[in-house]
Amino acid sequence: MASLGRRALLSAVALGLALAGAEGGTRLLRPQTPALPETGLLRGAFTTPGAHPVRSEVFTGTVQVNAQGFVDGPWGPRQAGTSQPGAARVVVIGDSFVQAAQVPLTAGFGRVLARELSEDGAPVEVLSLGVPGAGTGTALLLARAWLAELQPDLVLYAMTTSNDVLNNHPELDPKPDKPFFARRGAALVQIDPQDAAVPLWARGALWRHSHLLRWIGRTFWTRAEVAARLERGGGLPIELRVHDPSPSPDWEEAWALTGALIGALAEESADHGADFATLLFPDAVEATAAGRAEATARWPALAAWDTRAAARRAAALAEAHGPVLDLQPAIAAAEPEGSPLYLDKDGHWTEAGHRVAAEASAPFVQALLAGRE
Question: Are 153 and 122 in contact (CB under 8 A)?
Answer without folding.
Answer: no
